[in-house]
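Reading group handout, session on sequence-to-structure problems. Before we discuss, look at one worked example. The prompt was deliberately terse, the way you'd type it at a terminal:

> structure KIN17-like protein

The input record follows.
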Amino acid sequence: MGKHEFLTPKAIANRIKAKGLQKLRWYCQMCQKQCRDENGFKCHCMSESHQRQMQVFGMAPDRVVEGFSEEFLDTFLGLIRRAHRHSRVAATVVYNEYIADRHHVHMNSTRWATLTEFVKFLGREGYCKVEDTPKGWFMTYIDRDSEKAIKARLKRKRIKSDMAEDERQERMIARQIERAQKSLAKANDGDEGDVAEGESESESGSEEEYSGSDDDDGEEQEEGSKEANKATGKIAIALQKSVPGPKVNPFEEKPKVNFGFDEEDSGVRGKERDEVSNKKGKDVKASEARRSALDELMKEEEKAKERSNRKDYWLCPGIVVKVMSKSLAQKGYYKQKGVVKKVIDKYVGEIEMLESKHVLRVDQDELETVIPQIGGLVRIVNGAYRGSNARLLSVDTEKFCAKVQVEKGLYDGKVLRAVEYEDICKISS
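And the output record:
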């Protein structure tokens, strides 16, 4: 049996020595070979197999390093997801658990030189929430899968609540329209009754006038014929009966006809003028009633919209906010601005700071809206027009409100004259 056969004491001793963690400086990642001392590593570097692997590395060094980096990142995140999914843990603890595997991808073969640099990368990319403390770097894994499930469930719940709110609002608007139609129908019925009375009076007056004119014409004809016969005996004057003219509109002034009763005619015209003026007054009142009913309907709809869209949460992705948490003052985040990347459970925002690019999770009570310069784009985050984008027109510093004009959407071009500071926020460019 040879000296280094499988079951010889020397071979078993070599395997026992190689089983534990060895020094990183004597590990070759390209060949995946661990050497126990400097002499062994030197001999390995002079071997033919190592030279061939180095030739492969020299053809595309960037691609090889990037491949090792991706493998290191995936394995590291898989360990955190399995062992520390919902806990805050020190980065050194996770790294020691990771390198316990003898065949892991070593960090000196990746694009990260130190563990600190790698932890900062995880925080920037949003894989973990990282914190720099006096005891070292701590990180908390951000569970994307469970967050997606929670987000989908909240979205379904919000859609159901919005549908219920829309149905209630539609029923209320239908009831308001029905009441407005009833009030308008009552006003129109009163106007038609007045018109019918005026027409009956005018027709009866005209009949009396025409009947009187017929009698008068008959008497005048008889007297005229007698006088003519007495005077000449030859000429007979016959006056035809006056043919009744077209029916006159009671709302217009009658043509001036003199039948010999000036006083009665002037009285009739006075009554007609009074009726016309009363009719005009009633038309004006009816139009004012319609306008007031529509205004009240619009106000009620605005109030209903305000009630349905006014919530106790206002965070939404894509807006710029200011961190007002004094507990974060020691870390330099107090009164610093950041962009809301996503919203968790409606009240917690994942904020990427504009200067440091660090990602924080902050409750909305410790955040404040940001107002841009005049002409900048804002998003209405609460109230009747919640979710609409608008252009900032002016700011009233005394009343703490702003004048904005809605852009795009259902209310495009509408100007809102008094929107509170807390209801609008700057949109990140």
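Points for discussion. First: Helices lie at 9-19, 38-45, 48-59, 61-83, 91-99, 115-125, 144-231, 262-309. Second: The first strand starts at residue 27 and ends at 28.
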